[in-house]
């Protein structure tokens, strides 16, 4: 399937862009956050993509990072969460926000997304809590630059989770990896890192590890 795409933006709408790739126009649907990050009409853009195939429709969805794309795939696996709902959650929380909400069991944060009710939000948290740490540990590498991929559509046969991000993982991902290497369960470590990150915005890896270890220390 089409794994990433780059070309000139010919048209922008509220929830999608038309990207011209060597004379072929690709309609790519994006979250609100991704739309805001894209350049203006006439400029070049590069996005990772996921292709939705149904009996009566083919739709491309675009993401600025592989982590965002993987969250989309996970969200779509939850009962009652379709592509529109997934993009709404990604637009409201972003990849880091989704990971933090799930790790902390904060379904109210998920419910803040447009069109997401409490039952769906609770299902997202409950069904993805064991899968969240793996995605959180991926980090958030940027999409390939248009200069690197100008006018190319690249087929991606491997799953997104198995494709390394171009840039290294961020502090939260590195802290999570360190804690799991110390023997903490992925879910337990993810919750501690998410809480530490929420309490210390912009903290580096070492600070997050120290804060998470304090949270994981036995009480009493």
TrEMBL record:
Domain Helix-hairpin-helix DNA-binding motif class: 73-92, 108-127
Region Domain III, annotated ranges: 169-220
DNA damage is among the record's keywords: yes
Places the protein is found: Cytoplasm
Molecular function, one GO term: DNA helicase activity
Superkingdom of origin: Bacteria
Region (Domain I): 1-64
Main location: cytoplasm
Keyword terms: Cytoplasm, DNA damage, DNA recombination, DNA repair, DNA-binding, Hydrolase
Gene3D superfamilies registered for this protein in UniProt: 5' to 3' exonuclease, C-terminal subdomain (1.10.150.20), DNA helicase RuvA subunit, C-terminal domain (1.10.8.10), Nucleic acid-binding proteins (2.40.50.140)
NCBIfam families: ruvA (TIGR00084)
Family: Belongs to the RuvA family.
Known role: The RuvA-RuvB-RuvC complex processes Holliday junction (HJ) DNA during genetic recombination and DNA repair, while the RuvA-RuvB complex plays an important role in the rescue of blocked DNA replication forks via replication fork reversal (RFR). RuvA specifically binds to HJ cruciform DNA, conferring on it an open structure. The RuvB hexamer acts as an ATP-dependent pump, pulling dsDNA into and through the RuvAB complex. HJ branch migration allows RuvC to scan DNA until it finds its consensus sequence, where it cleaves and resolves the cruciform DNA.
Database matches in HAMAP family: DNA_HJ_migration_RuvA
Subunit structure of this chain's protein: Homotetramer. Forms an RuvA(8)-RuvB(12)-Holliday junction (HJ) complex. HJ DNA is sandwiched between 2 RuvA tetramers; dsDNA enters through RuvA and exits via RuvB. An RuvB hexamer assembles on each DNA strand where it exits the tetramer. Each RuvB hexamer is contacted by two RuvA subunits (via domain III) on 2 adjacent RuvB subunits; this complex drives branch migration. In the full resolvosome a probable DNA-RuvA(4)-RuvB(12)-RuvC(2) complex forms which resolves the HJ.
Domain-level remarks: Has three domains with a flexible linker between the domains II and III and assumes an 'L' shape. Domain III is highly mobile and contacts RuvB.
Designated name of the protein: Holliday junction branch migration complex subunit RuvA
Native organism: Roseovarius aquimarinus
Lineage: Bacteria, Pseudomonadati, Pseudomonadota, Alphaproteobacteria, Rhodobacterales
Gene: ruvA
């Amino acid at each position: 399937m089409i794994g990433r795409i780059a070309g000139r933006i010919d048209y922008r709408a509220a929830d999608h862009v038309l990207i011209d790739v060597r004379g072929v126009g690709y309609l790519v649907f994006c979250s609100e956050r991704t739309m805001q990050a894209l350049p203006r009409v006439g400029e070049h853009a590069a996005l990772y993509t996921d292709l939705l195939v149904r009996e009566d429709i083919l739709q491309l969805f675009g993401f600025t990072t592989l982590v965002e794309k993987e969250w989309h795939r996970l969200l779509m696996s939850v009962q009652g969460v379709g592509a529109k709902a997934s993009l709404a959650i990604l637009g409201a929380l972003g990849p880091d926000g989704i990971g933090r909400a799930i790790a902390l069991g904060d379904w109210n944060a998920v419910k803040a997304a447009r069109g997401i009710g409490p039952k769906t939000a609770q299902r997202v948290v409950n069904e993805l809590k064991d899968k969240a740490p793996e995605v959180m540990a991926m980090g958030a590498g940027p999409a390939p630059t248009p200069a690197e991929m100008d006018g190319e559509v690249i087929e991606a046969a491997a799953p997104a989770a198995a494709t390394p991000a171009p840039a290294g993982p961020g502090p939260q991902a590195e802290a999570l990896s360190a804690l799991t290497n110390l023997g903490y369960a992925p879910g337990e470590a993810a919750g501690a890192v998410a809480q530490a990150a929420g309490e210390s915005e912009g903290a580096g890896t070492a600070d997050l590890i120290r804060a998470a270890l304090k949270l994981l220390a036995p009480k009493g």
